[in-house]
Structure formats: structure tokens, C-alpha cells
Amino acid sequence: MNISFTPELEQFIQSQVANGKYASTEEVVVAGIKLLEERESIYKGRFEELRREIMVGVKASERGEVIEGETVFHQLEQKLQQRRQQTGE
């Protein structure tokens, strides 16, 4: 497989090898691909977590356990004000 890099990326890769962080260009590319795999895994996990949280909300809504949006926003504003007071913002 042949891969072409922009001059900026090629310079970055060469600097990583020159600094001794990696032994070769291939190691830099493999490290980048592994980071991409990790990121995709994290995103997939977060997506599934959000899906479960949404289903909890949908089921609560079906049971009639809902709060008016205006009330929710008011509660969020209060929490934000409390945090700002605690942190001195």
C-alpha cells in the first residue's frame, strides 16, 4: 500500500522519528491508526450510552413521568448559577 502525505504531515512524521519517539515512519502511522481506532470505539460506546439514556426518557414519558421544558431550563439555570458562585466566576 502506498500512502501520500501532505508536506506538513510528512514533516511532522519525520520529526517524530528524528526526536526518537518512534523508530520509523511506519510506527508513526500505526500509532495514528490505533488512536483513530480508540476514538471510534469511544464514540461508539458513547453513542450506545446516549441511546440507552434516551430510551429511559422515552419510557418515562410513556408512563407520564415528564417535566415541562420551562421547569427543566429553570432548574438548569439555577444549577449553573450555583456552580458559578462556588467557583467564583
TrEMBL record:
Q: What are the protein's UniProt keywords?
A: Toxin-antitoxin system
InterPro entries, alphabetized: ParD, ParD_sf, Ribbon_hlx_hlx
* Name of this chain's protein: Type II toxin-antitoxin system ParD family antitoxin
Domain of life per record: Bacteria
Keyword Phosphoprotein listed: no
Gene Ontology BP annotations: regulation of DNA-templated transcription
Which PANTHER family does the record cross-reference, listed alphabetically?
A: ANTITOXIN PARD
Query: Family, per the entry?
Result: Belongs to the ParD antitoxin family.
Q: Which SUPFAM superfamilies has this protein been placed in?
A: Ribbon-helix-helix (SSF47598)
